[in-house]
Amino acid sequence: MGYGNYSHDAHRSLLDARAGKPAEQVFKQRKCHPLMDPKGVKARESRDSAEHPATLPIVFALDVTGSMGAIPKMLAAQTLPDFMNVLQRCKVKDPQLMFCAVGDATSDNAPLQVGQFESTAELMDQWLTWSFLEGGGGGTGQESYELAMYFLSQHMDMDCKTKRNRRGYLFLTGDEMPYPTLSRHIVESVTGDRLDDDVKVEEVVAHLAESFIPFFVVPTPERRAHCEARWRQLLGDHVLCLERPEHVCHSAAGAILIQERIVTEPGALERVLVDAGASRGQIQGTLRALAPLFDAPNFGKSSQPPAAPSLLKRLFKQT
Questions:
Q1: Whole-angstrom Cα distance, residue 295 to residue 28?
Q2: Average pLDDT of the residues of the chain
Q3: Which residues, in sequence order, are CB contacts of 215 under 8 Å at separation 6+?
Q4: Whole-prediction pTM
Q5: Please, which contacts does 225-232 make with residues 24 or more away whose CB atoms are closer than 8 Å?
Q6: Is the separation of the CB atoms in 170 and 212 below 8 Å?
């Protein structure tokens, strides 16, 4: 997947055309779209081509439980073009976006939905708005983030990794903790994969970090208290605590620019955001959210979350 070229003007026009429509007319799915069902999927592909010779896969895995459903609506109505605009202006080569929707496998009908990697505005928007915003969640203080991370660690076929040994990016939005253990029964039910045993979330993250540079994005200060500490245990400095949900796209784009060493200090990132048309509030909120990345001891290095103490190489067996 991922053919065609991105047009910011086309993307903005698409969003302008639906301005004022209620979310129910934009996100029309009332169950998991068949093409986003992960069961039996061998791999989602991010491929190089003549148009895109150096693809960079980027995944937005969006929590769509009741407390978090506003973010996908915001991306589809306002902010996703801002993300692409920043990457284009900074000449980030060949980004390909994929959207996932994440719920709670203990209570939801569609705890994981997975799109395709795309390069055009129209197809990015298609997969985003095909997401079923179930609005569930189990009320346990945990969601099935580890299930999404498992799928992304085991069911991707990305030329950036196989050809260039380069990782993609994952931005996982949420306001809860992951379950401490990935249930082999849930994995088989949702994906069809059979595991030898349940898997600790630390081991899932370690596998994920072989292919992706993961970030967990908390949308407001009020939601940090419950989940931030646990996610910092798993991802270190790659926990982005925002002041407003509207800052998701600028903060994600800024994290990529920092990681790619396109910007090396806050002033440079501020100039990029000014040129991209961000408001003063968006700029200041983004800079505050990303300050820990500039201050991190491993700034400028090939960052990787803490490795799991024991990585089980024999865990994953597809049927």
A1: 42
A2: 92
A3: 169, 170, 171, 172, 235, 238, 239, 240, 252, 255
A4: 0.94
A5: 226/141, 226/175, 226/176, 226/177, 227/174, 227/175, 227/176, 227/177, 230/177, 230/178, 231/177
A6: yes
- Is the alpha carbon torsion for 224, 220, 173, 266 positive or negative? negative
SS3 178: strand
Rounded CA separation 185/103 (Å): 16
Q: How many residues does the chain have?
A: 319
Q: Answer yes or no: are the C-beta atoms of 62 and 124 closer than 8 Å.
A: no
Which amino acid is it at 112? L
Q: What is the pLDDT of residues 199-236, one digit of tens each?
A: 999 999 999 999 999 999 999 999 999 899 999 999 99
Token pair in block for residue 95: 């980004």
High-pLDDT (> 90) share of the chain, %? 87
Cα(113)–Cα(101) distance, rounded to whole angstroms? Answer: 5
Q: Would you place residue 19 in the very low, low, confident or very high pLDDT band (cuts 50, 70, 90)?
A: confident
| Run of H or E residues at 191 | helix 184-191
Q: Would you state the structure tokens that stand for residue 3, as one six-digit string? A: 């053919």
15: left (phi over 0), alpha (psi -120 to 50) or beta: alpha
**Best CA proximity match to 114, nearest among 161, 170, 162, 67:** 170
Q: 175: which strand partners?
A: none
The amino acid that residue 102 corresponds to is V
Buried b (16+ CB within 10 A) or exposed e, 264-295: eebeebbebbeebebeeebbebbbebbebbbe
